[in-house]
Amino acid sequence: MGKLVFERPIIKKLSSGMPSKFGMKTKIDPITEIDGNLIKDLISAYDSPLFVLSEKIIRKTYQDAKRSFSTRYPKVQFAWSYKTNYLDAVCRVYHQEGSWAEVVSGFEYEKAVNNGVSGDHIIFNGPDKSRENLKKAVLNSSLIHIDHFDELYQLIELADELDKAPKVAIRVNMDTGIYPQWDRFGFNYDNGEAWDALNRIMLSKKLDLVGLHTHIGTYILTASAYNKAASKLADLAAGLERKYGHVVKYIDMGGGFASKSTLKGAYLSGTDTAPSFDDYADAISSALINSGIKPENLPLLILETGRALIDDAGFILGTVLANKRLADGRRSTIIDVGVNILFTSFWYEHNIVPAQAFSDHTEETAIYGPLCMNIDVIREAIDFPALKTGDHIVINRVGAYNMTQWMQFITLRPDIVMIDTDGKPFVIRKKESIETILSQEEVPPHLQ
Amino acid sequence: MKVKKNIAISESGFVFDPSSGESYSLNPIGTEILEYLKKNMSFEEISPLILEKYDVDQITFERYYFDFVNSLQQFNLISNEQ
Ligand SMILES: Cc1ncc(COP(=O)(O)O)c(C=O)c1O
């Protein structure tokens, strides 16, 4: 007779029917595979930790978002926010789906060009645009979103120098009733600065004012804020029609839709609180349709949605390194995924689940990363089953910002794999090696 | 090391500590080990029984055994006095 499967012995305190600080007990479901690939096979092929992106989920989420907007508004265009995840493979999926590119630096601009996006489908945003980069953008007929007056005047100069009218929009910031108000980018609506900028553009006659843009913030849980923001931009557009007989081609509402990840300190999970694409689409399209803009002039609606499009498609797979008891008796589990590669653990309560069957005894556990640093905390306290060294874990909804804001610190960055729509995995960014790092370093002669 | 005398352990792994009023639940192997401990068996006596019955090696078992005993101490279910 074979031996019985060993499970580690556990004891758990019962608190008769009282909801703990985790709320009523939530069932933990393991994630054992992604699009037909077993977690253990992925880890044995590519090592642990490992980022995995599902092309299927990327496309499905994009199509859902597109449908929500295009069933409510006649002309809709998405522009992929490069900073959210600018791996070429990811960008190309969005471009194949029909997305333009939204970039905020010369580096991102070049990436978009290399990904085959035509100049007039690149939106160039942000406060940092060098003269050289602006020049390139003007010559390529890219859509330049002006952030401040210095940039506005520089563009007027460039228009003369290049004898070409730059295609521009202004970025507008405003009070939409939410906090914090992002007022450091663009021109303020409420104090008249935005009008001031528009008047200077129109009177200069050197710039081709094609659009109006705002980005009211990120992870915005109140869809109605978008209704206010769209109304204010529409109000500027209607004013331009009246005052100058000028029709803007588009209104760009930026990004900021909440993904289903849970913010730190939130009592309810993001899956319960995040508005749907339909909610945001209702808020924006009703504001534009009900605005003073003449119906025949209704502008193209551009969306630069980032995290809400890609968070769900990203997973990080990891391995349990050790378990230990903290001085206060709490259990802690150390995994090989640290905050250096999972930057978003600073603001999200990430969902962590086992990658294999586990005991249904759970216990309050602190989940730490592998770095020898006190800040390396993935979860302060999570109701978690006892896993053994070598067991695998999966953290889902990590597709946004991690693969761009991660840093090489203490350890090397892992492979990133994308699973295509047929379930076949491809490495889309190779893991770093000691050579990758050393190739960037130089030792002065006297230290050689 | 001794399990507190008045502690009740049911077959299904339910534990009640009348001195504190707290109750606990154990998984099956936890129940088995706590029963052995109640009979004053030592790690050296328990270990071969577990290794015989379950698919586990000595080192792995030892590690999780002491973590388990640690939890029992945290919950004041066993004391270190002889
Ligand atoms: C101008 C602009 N557009 C789009 C985005 C994407 O935002 P999100 O990921 O919140 O959708 C950002 C992010 O900061 C941004 O600054």
Descriptive account of the structure:
The complex is a heterodimer of chains A (448) and B (82). Chain A has 448 residues and is an alpha/beta fold. Chain A folds into two domains: 33-52 and 312-433, Lyase, Ornithine Decarboxylase, Chain A, domain 1 (Beta Barrel); 55-310, TIM Barrel (Alpha-Beta Barrel). Chain A is 29% helix and 23% strand. In chain A, the strands form three sheets. In chain A, strands 5, 15, 16, 17, 18, 19, 20, 21 and 22 form a nine-stranded mixed sheet that branches. In chain A, β12, α8 and β13 form a beta-alpha-beta unit. In chain A, α2 (55-70) runs parallel beside α3 (88-97), α2 (55-70) packs parallel to α10 and α8 packs parallel to α10. Chain A is globular. Chain B has 82 residues and is an alpha+beta fold. Chain B has one domain. Chain B has three helices and six strands. Chain B has helices at residues 28-38, 43-53, 58-74, and strands spanning 2-3, 8-9, 14-17, 22-26, 54-55, 78-79. A three-stranded antiparallel sheet of chain B has the order 2-3-4. In chain B, strands 1-6 form a two-stranded antiparallel sheet. In chain B, a hairpin with a 4-residue loop joins β3 (14-17) and β4 (22-26). In chain B, α2 packs across α3. The longest helix of chain B is centred in the C-terminal third of the chain and has 17 residues, at 58-74. Chain B is globular. Chain B starts with a strand and ends with a strand. The A-B interface holds A 2-14, 16, 323, 325, 329, 359, 361, 388 and B 15, 22-30, 32-34, 52-56, 60-61, 64-65, 67-68, 70-72, 74-75, 77. β1 of chain A pairs parallel with β5 of chain B, so a sheet runs across the interface. Pyridoxal-5'-phosphate is lined by residues 81, 84, 102, 125, 215, 218, 254-257, 304-308, 400 of chain A.
